[in-house]
Amino acid sequence: VKRLFEPATYFHRNKRVQASWNIDRAERALAIAVYIFEKDVEAKPNCKQCDKSIGPTPGSRCIVPSGEILGGACTNCVYSGHRLACSFVRAIEREELAKKEAQKKNGELRPLTPELLRKMQFAELEVLLRILRNAIEERQEMIRSGQASRSTP
């Protein structure tokens, strides 16, 4: 255990209430486990959702694990089902978009056009097809698990 669970407090019907937690969904159980067991991950400053104390988030601290375990979001946003609304995720998306724009500007990123597809070897097309199928399956799984999918250009 890296930190004790410290419940957040929020206002409900003009009354300050201490948050409780429920692990009825896999995302919630994962968020609580990360909150308690991950080390060296406290966000400074908090994400915008935690700063605003929107809704009954379970933890009093904004915890963001390293790596991809929560997709760049904090434990409170994942627990609350708002992973994509976490300002840390949005910052990552903005960075990735800026990187793609820079690559496009420098000619490093070629758009996938019918002409380019015609020039590709069969093996290259098979690899591309596998990548696309995996991406589609991941998005479908996100939708099934209740997470909205946003695409970036």
UniProtKB/TrEMBL annotation:
Question: Origin, by domain of life?
Answer: Eukaryota
Under the heading InterPro entries, the entry gives:
DUF3716
Specify the protein name: Uncharacterized protein
Organism, as annotated:
Corynascus novoguineensis
